Amino acid sequence: MSQMIRSLLRGAMASEIKKVPIPRKGVDYRGKVVLAPMVRSGELPSRLLALHYGADLVWGPETVDRSMIGTTRRYNEITKTIEWTRKPSQGSKSPPDDVKDSIIYRVHPDREAGKHIFQIGTSNPEKAVEAARLVAGDVTGIDVNAGCPKPFSTHDGMGAALLRTPDKLCAILEALVKNIVPEYEIGISVKIRILETPAETEALVRKLVATGITGLTVHCRTTPMRPRERAIRGQLRMIRDICHEAGVACVMNGDVESRDHAATLISEFGVDGAMIATCAEKNSSCFRAGSEGGTAPWEQVVEKYVEFAMDVHNKFGNTKYLLCQLVPGKSATYRLLQPCKSYAAVCEVLGHAHLLERAREVDQAIGIDPESKAQQAADKSAAKAGQKAARKKQEQQQKQNNASALAAGGNSARERANNKKPLSERGVTAQKQQQGQENQKSPSPIADAMLQPTHDATTAAAEASKVTLLEGIISS
Ligand SMILES: Cc1cc2nc3c(=O)[nH]c(=O)nc-3n(C[C@H](O)[C@H](O)[C@H](O)COP(=O)(O)O)c2cc1C
């Protein structure tokens, strides 16, 4: 068959594909390579970074309906951003007036124009609509999270729990379609995971595409699967077919590594777009096509990120967290970053002398004074909180290991230790015992974890305690 006939046939088939209408201010997910929603890693400067390197659309981090409800929208003249703020409740229903407002969500109306999708965490149609109304005039689409497996989401019936209550999920999507689409003229979409069997997934997807949504993203892992497990793509073509029958755009997610990789996968599986999370978190230049330079060295990406973070006065804790994702754990810079408490210190460590003056201004604007006693005390307590959290995480990990060992018919760590034969009975020589004791003198588990490479940590436990330590630093 000649090239011309083939392309005519392709054209004819393409024109037959049904497409639901895209609302006037909304966006068609077809042909897009997009940044995934990521709590903490998908804050404003990360989204600007992804856009800078060519992401077609960017999802914001999941924001729970009840944390949005009650916020006040305001325009920040300095950073040129729109912010939704509220007083932190601090455990009481009426917090004191002098408590500083917390920023719950932010968008950059110019730099994210037409490209920003707000993701909502919800398990209630009325609350979903109430929260969505607050942002709908400033974003390009509203996406419902039906894939988060974390207990903070599922315990309330949100995230992946919605996959088991499809009628509730459909009611949420229908309520958003009915109340948000006509008034704000943007589209509604959903992000799901695959279910255990193709039949279960098929039944779910058939219901979802009939709700009036314009897009469906499928994370090709089941709810219990860990992020390290390879994505399963066996159900993808079936999901795509159901989406296409209904005219809904189908976006694939899971182990997509770059724009070029996305293009290959889109053509292999016939889906409409691809979403990238982890690889973008490590190096957002993955959105740049190979023909345009491809993935950039981390030093360049980090410099851009620091600039964007300073542009929007990003909370320093979040900036530092992201830097720890972007800077390879093996590099000396990674270790030097750990004690940094200000943008100025970060710029010094990174050797960005040209950004130093601006960094000092930003530090001052956001109230960071690295020399102040209060700052030093805060840092000290942050470090303590981090260590405590890391210890707790290790204990939890130990409990989990025990549970899985017991479930698999083995023993708990304590029993294993009690049942251990003396070293001499296990043929360990005195010299080896000595060596073992020497090895135990190496740094603490926390220090070990901190020194592990970020991107190729040797054990999950070390990675977990590093993350927890960082979480402690950030949350404080
Ligand atoms: C740090 C982090 C935060 C995430 N937060 C969210 C979220 O807020 N909403 C959501 O739907 N998925 C969230 N996810 C899941 C990702 O969007 C994505 O589905 C998953 O990581 C698989 O994509 P990947 O294989 O490219 O990493 C998060 C993932 C990571 C790594």
TrEMBL record:
Q: Where is the DUS-like FMN-binding domain?
A: 107-342
Q: Name one GO biological process term.
A: mRNA processing
Record-level Gene Ontology MF annotations:
flavin adenine dinucleotide binding; tRNA dihydrouridine synthase activity
**Low complexity biased stretches:** 373-388, 397-412, 431-440
Entry annotated with the keyword Oxidoreductase: yes
Record's superkingdom?
A: Eukaryota
InterPro entries according to UniProt:
Aldolase_TIM (IPR013785), DUS-like_FMN-bd (IPR035587), tRNA-DUS-like (IPR052582), tRNA_hU_synthase_CS (IPR018517)
Task: State where composition is biased (Basic and acidic residues).
Answer: 413-424
Query: What Pfam families would the database entry show?
Result: Dus
- The record's region (Disordered) falls at 371-459
Protein known as:
DUS-like FMN-binding domain-containing protein
